[in-house]
Amino acid sequence: MEMYIDPHLHAVSRTTDDYEAMRKAGVVAIIEPAFWLGQPRTEVGSFKDYFSTLVGWERFRAKQFGIVHYCTIGLNSKEANNEALAEEVMELLPLYATKEGVVAIGEIGYDDQTAAEDKYYRLQLELAKEVELPVLIHTPHRDKKKGTTRSMDVSEEHGLPPHMVIVDHNNEETVKEVLDRGYWAAFTIYPHTKMGSNRMVEIVKKYGPERIIVDSAADWGISDPLAVPKTAALMRKHGIPEEHIRMTCYQNALTAYSQSGQMDESDWLNPEPIDQRLKHAGNSVLRGGQTPRVEGPSDYVEN
Hints:
This protein is of the alpha/beta class. Helix content is 40%, strand content 14%. Strands 1-2-3-4-5-6-7-8 form an 8-stranded parallel β-sheet. Helix 8 (197-207) crosses helix 9. The longest helix is centred in the middle third of the chain and has 17 residues, at 115-131. Residues 281-303 are annotated as: Disordered.
């Protein structure tokens, strides 16, 4: 059975059906970056509860469906523009950055490339150095090439080595510079926009598999939590070598984020058995009358 890692998926916005479908498709681990929820937050307590969900309930919920859950912690660029709130969030971040299962500071960087975004991006780069975690950079959707170059320039100003930085939301316009400068180049596969599976296949054909990472960034919008296994299947159809598929859809993400010391292949090769009778803070994934799923570590669902 093929194994995949989706290193950018906002599980808090997805259902248990998505977890079941990902498991059946071979997704063994996901990374959930802290991000914007669509509705701007107005109180620091909203961030505190959200970060607690990422390191607590969501980690438990994924395990109930046979998927290992990790996360990144950070102040996203869009909400960095509320400076009064951003100051309070910055005080929270060190408390969560060293929690179990946190594999990077992110996703951070630029949205509209404002002075406030620049300020909090730089502060979080310093935090990443302090806690010795990789950085996940969100590159802007507007004026992407300029924002991507600036993101790497600023990272280098703060002394972060490229091998500790994952630059996400790349496209054909940015990939060459990101790879040439030694960074990890991640791509979010969205239906109908940004980067699609067919374009991803062409990029892997052109640049090869080194330091390229495929992810879904599935969230509350129109997106696909199966984008990684579907893109892998399309690569096979187009004759891309199996080792290249493994690197772009599994190994590169593992290599990049395991630098945190929080992510290890043994986490899913020797998993705890699924036991939906368990509860987290008194809460279960089950609803009244449902039969809990209980299985051993060898009972993987076949594709």
